[in-house]
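Morning, I've got a small favour to ask if you have a moment. I've dropped the whole record in just underneath, so have a look.
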Amino acid sequence: MRARDRDRGQVAIEYLGFLPILLLVALGTVQLGLIAYAGQQAGTAARAGARAASLDLGAQQGCTAAVSDWLDAACSEGQLGDEVEVTATVDIPSLVPGWDFGPATRTAVMPIDHTD
């Protein structure tokens, strides 16, 4: 019986030792999801901005409307003859203060709509 009394709480101590690793893996998984989501939102913003710019409605307005409210998006547009090119940049949010993943950048090109 004495050996069993000494082992009491062993599983709890092992779990507490493993808990930081589990939290780190969970944090990394959520951060990877945020990176992928920001990249997807940048692509959506670039396409929406290019569509708006091709209709002469303003690329920035189209970009901002296409992105989730909690993400910051900036768009720049350029003319390529009969086409418009829009580059959208979305800041990747970080769960850990001090870690900077940079922005997600995507580009889309659309023909200019010549309706008169």
